[in-house]
Design goal:
About 25% of the residues lie in helices and about 25% in strands. The chain is an alpha+beta fold. It folds into 4 domains: about 5-110, Dna Ligase, domain 1 (2-Layer Sandwich), CATH 3.30.1490; about 120-200, no CATH class; about 210-420, no CATH class; about 565-729, no CATH class. α5 runs antiparallel to α9, α5 crosses α10 (about 420-450) and α9 packs across α10 (about 420-450). The longest helix is centred in the middle third of the chain and has 30 residues, at about 420-450. It is globular, with a radius of gyration of 30 Å. The termini are far apart.
């Protein structure tokens, strides 16, 4: 610490356009440099031999929040630095967007010459290393085999000495493991510098491991695959500009094998994750010409693996050894994709054509070239074009950046472990998920018998979700039959088949008490029967916008109810949209979750097929002409029982401009059911309170014209209770 450089960092927010900033930046940097040098001189606790000045600017694209740091220079040179970094990090550049200088920074580095170490003797200073002597030898398991491994004391090691792995270096505060294929060098400051010295020592997979995975490595790959999807999500959030993606986190990211099977995901939106694999498989099946490096495709087609039109999936083939061996994908809910109402969630649509612009495997990036004009032409086509295609493009570019991050991480994984190992463990993690679900089914058979286990869930639109679950103890499989569910509806509560599969996948994954990634393996023990023409398997051009958000919730409640595991949650996402030609906003509103056999439900939580969050009040009021007047827990709205259901919420929003508001919800006439004698939760409601004091009650699906000064009050349902409530003595 005594020899460390002394650093003084000064920053200042400027928020000005790069092209207009030259004189202002120079002036601000001069001031910061003077302040930093003055502070360095004031400290004066020890001398420095030289001073280095580093001037930097933190730049971002207009409309985004993520900044990158560049060295201060001319505007053209700083733009070049920024775009090189942006291309490297996110895979694209937004050359049509302006740059903003968010902050400027000056760092003063007071350097001190390094003094020779008094502890280094003459032979060591000349670089002559003494052969270290081990204090013992033990057996160490490394790279899938056992090694006789020497143990060294760190204080016995001398400068410039090298140890070849495998080796163990002990010290007072820890143990250092040097793996096979690595070496450690003792620096002149007695640091241990580890480097990989043998590329052939990469972990490789044996023939035995192809059939049966190593348990330790299986756990490592479970987490590595999931971590890649999480990194994709961080990139997407940081590079997007819409409230929907950046603040509400209404997006999902995942990686897939070469056949389009889901390998791993981050803990994002369940209804996205269980259905994205269908979109990837549809792209593979429908491809008209071979994939090329740098390709990206987008789709929101509900009849080709999609959910509803606002959810757009970006899919990138990942090339290894000149072959598309993996896929990465990100799905984001766009604030508007056209349709008859702002926000693209029309409550009363009767055809998917009224819900927005349909994109079916649109080739957005062709060999690294972004086809922005072609996308713009498609988004602005009548009859119901997108209202803000520029924002659509910005969020899609963020999705491309997220996919690029996933591809880079997969390449790094292949480089570290080898292609055969990565491919083998992509299959192993799916096989492990399959076996985990089979163990759950075995436990359910032992506890509840084979069934059939049945449940009917009525919906406010008049439809019924009817499921029958038969558990097969012979091979620990399950048949899930929706044959008696209502037929295709004339409204928009039809759910694409991919959504139904996603709900089944979600339910059985939640019953696994091990930290495994949700993936395609979870579906292998499950036989799902959904007849064509059902509301869970509709035919084009049936309207589907509510199926993804409302019907999916009813399906999960029906499955949990049939298995007698969980009382009904609020059973709705309370989809609320408002907007005009300038603003478009969408949110889902939390409610109560259902109680179980040994736990209460949770108050004010997003349940089951949604995992998004609500926009922070400050952001909501900053970005839109509204005020959030109330957001509180709705007391006593959860069902009573031995374990009570969670409470819903009350949300009141005041509008400061004229808007069109839309509500797409459920459980307004039906109540969330209880189980095992538990009481039902209270149903929800919504109303408009006009500026003149009059009040209008809204139905579960409603479109209403809002004037400045009007308020909308939304009251969400509570969850059902579980078990009979104990009687007072």
């Amino acid at each position: 610490m005594g020899l460390a450089d002394r650093r003084i960092l000064k920053e200042r927010s400027v928020e000005i356009a790069l092209e207009e900033a030259s004189a202002t930046l120079t002036r601000q940097l001069d001031l910061l440099e003077s302040e930093a040098i003055a502070e360095l001189n004031r400290q004066g606790d020890r001398d420095v031999d030289s001073i280095e000045v580093v001037r930097q600017c933190h730049l971002r694209y207009v409309g985004t929040d993520s900044t990158l740091t560049v060295a201060f220079s001319t505007a053209a040179e700083m733009r070049q630095q920024f775009e090189q970094q942006y291309q490297q990090q996110y895979g694209v550049t937004l050359s049509d967007k302006g740059l903003v200088v968010a902050t400027v920074a000056v760092e003063i580095i007071g350097k001190t010459e390094r003094k020779p170490d008094d502890q280094i003797d003459k032979s060591q200073a000349m670089g002559i290393a003494i052969e270290p002597k081990p204090i013992a030898t033990v057996r160490l398991y490394s790279n899938s085999q056992w090694h006789d491994t020497p143990i060294f004391q760190r204080q016995d090691l001398q400068v410039n000495q090298e140890l070849l792995g495998p080796a163990i270096v002990l010290e007072k505060t820890g143990t250092n493991i040097v793996e096979s294929g690595w070496q450690v060098l003792v620096s002149d400051r007695k640091n241990l510098i580890l480097t990989q010295c043998d590329e052939s020592s990469k972990p490789t997979i044996s023939e035995d491991e192809t059939a049966k995975p190593d348990p330790v490595r299986l756990e490592i790959f479970n987490n590595l695959f999931q971590a890649i999807a999480e990194q994709m999500g961080f990139t997407l959030q940081n590079t997007s500009s819409s409230v929907n993606i950046k603040e509400r986190l209404d997006f999902s990211c995942a990686i897939f094998d070469r056949a389009g099977q889901l390998v791993a995901n981050a803990p994002h939106i369940p209804v996205h994750l269980g259905s994205m694999g269908e979109s990837v498989k549809a792209l593979i099946f429908d491809q008209e010409k071979p994939f090329q490096p740098g390709d990206v495709f987008i789709s929101n087609n509900p009849y080709n693996g999609g959910t509803h039109l606002p959810d757009i999936t970006a899919i990138t083939p990942v090339f290894v050894e000149s072959q598309p061996l993996f896929f990465v994908a990100s799905r984001g809910h766009h604030a508007d994709i056209g349709g008859v109402t702002p926000g693209s969630m029309p409550p009363n649509s009767t055809s998917v054509l009224q819900e927005g612009v349909l994109l079916d495997n649109f080739h957005l990036v062709e060999q690294g070239v972004l086809k922005a004009k072609e996308l713009g032409d498609r988004l602005t086509q009548p009859p119901y074009p997108a209202r803000n295609p520029a924002q659509n493009l910005t969020d899609l570019q963020a999705q491309i950046a997220a996919n690029n991050k996933g591809a880079k991480e997969l390449h790094s994984m292949v480089k570290q472990f080898g292609l055969s190992t990565v491919q083998a463990y992509m299959q192993h993690v799916q096989d492990n998920a399959e076996q985990s679900v089979r163990r759950v089914i075995q436990q359910l058979c032992e506890q509840q018998g084979s069934g059939p286990h049945q449940c009917q869930v009525p919906m406010d639109c008049g439809a019924i979700i009817n499921v029958s679950v038969v558990l097969n103890a012979a091979d620990n499989s399950a048949s899930i039959d929706f044959s008696h569910t209502s037929t295709q509806q004339p409204n928009n509560f039809n759910a694409p088949l991919a959504v139904c599969k996603a709900a089944v996948l979600y339910v059985f994954r939640t019953l696994v008490d091990q930290p495994i990634p949700l993936n395609a393996g979870c579906l292998k023990p499950l036989k799902i029967q959904v007849p064509a023409g059902s509301m869970l398997n509709p035919t084009y051009p049936a309207a589907v916008v509510a199926g993804n958000v409302e019907t999916s919730q009813a399906v999960t409640d029906a499955l949990y109810g049939a298995l007698n595991i969980l009382a009904a949650a609020q059973g709705t996402m309370n989809n609320f949209t408002f907007g005009n030609e300038k603003y478009q906003y969408y949110e889902t509103i939390c409610g109560g979750s259902g109680a179980g056999a040994n736990f209460d439900g949770t108050d004010a939580v997003q349940t089951h097929m949604t995992n998004s969050r609500l926009t922070d009040p400050e952001v909501l009021e900053l970005r839109f002409p509204v005020l959030l007047e109330e957001f509180s827990i709705r007391k006593n709205s959860g069902g009573a029982g031995k374990h009570s259901g969670g409470n819903g919420v009350i949300r009141k929003i005041l509008f400061r401009e004229a808007m069109t508001a839309n509500l797409l919800s459920g459980r307004r006439t039906n109540q969330p059911f209880g189980l095992a004698g538990g009481a039902s939760g209270q149903s929800g409601s919504a109303s408009v309170r006009r500026a003149d004091g009059t009040q209008e009650l809204l139905s579960a699906t409603a479109t209403v014209a809002i004037s400045a000064g009007d308020k909308i009050l939304i009251v969400t349902p509570g969850g059902g209770g579980y078990g009979e409530q104990s009687k007072a003595l």
